[in-house]
Amino acid sequence: MTITLFKGKLHRLTVTEAALHYEGSITLDRELMEAATLLPYERVQVVNVNNGARLETYTIPAPAGSRTVCLNGPAARLCAPGDLVVVMAYADLTPQEAETHKPRVVLVDNDNNPTDIFDLDGADVSDPTMPVVTNAVEASDIWGPRLGHPVRTRASDGHRRR
Fold first, then answer.
1. What is the value of pTM for the model shown?
2. Which residue has the higher pLDDT, 96 or 158?
3. CB–CB of 35/88 below 8 Å?
4. Residues designated as active site
5. How many CA atoms lie within 13 A of 62 on its CB side?
6. Residue 147 — φ and ψ, nearest 5°?
7. pLDDT higher than threshold 60 for residue 133
8. Residue 2's pLDDT is what?
9. What is the pLDDT of residues 11-69, one digit of tens each?
10. Percentages of the chain per state (helix, strand, coil), in multiples of 5
11. Residues 6+ apart with CB under 8 A from 156
12. 3-state secondary structure string across 103-125
């Protein structure tokens, strides 16, 4: 038996394009996909924060660093450039796998640049605006070392530390 759990998400992306006459899917920056553990052609749910529309489609990678978020085909009728969306994926896991599963969350700024990347740990959340997390890293921790920037971590109290 398997159960379906939340696997990872890109939270509050800004839609950059809508291509009505493309055959379908959502095109996403490859770096953003990798940060959220999303694979090319993986089934995802897209939720539009602006109008409440929900849809399922699959991912197509865009060039890394492009920050592309393009809804293709019929989905282009549900999301317009400038809308905020949440892109979520799920995974079928055995109960044993589920016990240690930690979903990945990627937060972005208004230009779809990652600002925070963390794994949820399943602990009770006392402040709904700040999830309790483990293995928390900031986006700069992933790409920063390549550029010579210091690595920052999130302490157990949820505040960022250098």
1. 0.79
2. 96
3. no
4. 25, 58
5. 16
6. -100, 5
7. no
8. 94
9. 999 999 999 999 879 999 999 999 999 999 999 999 999 999 999 999 999 999 999 99
10. 15, 45, 40
11. none
12. CEEEEECCCCCEEEEEEECCCCC
Task: Name beta bridge partners: 119.
Answer: 104, 134
Q: How far apart are CA 105 and CA 120, in angstroms?
A: 7
Burial of 53 (0-12, 13-18, 19+ CB in 10 A): middle
Q: How far is CA 11 from CA 57, 96, 118, 145, in A?
A: 17, 27, 12, 24
- Rounded Cα gap, residues 40 and 114, in angstroms: 19
DSSP three-state, residue 54: strand
Query: What pLDDT score was predicted for residue 125?
Result: 56
> Pick the residue with more confidence: 149 or 13?
13
In whole angstroms, give the CA distance from residue 32 to residue 106.
Answer: 8
Backbone angles phi and psi of 33, in degrees to 5: -60, -50
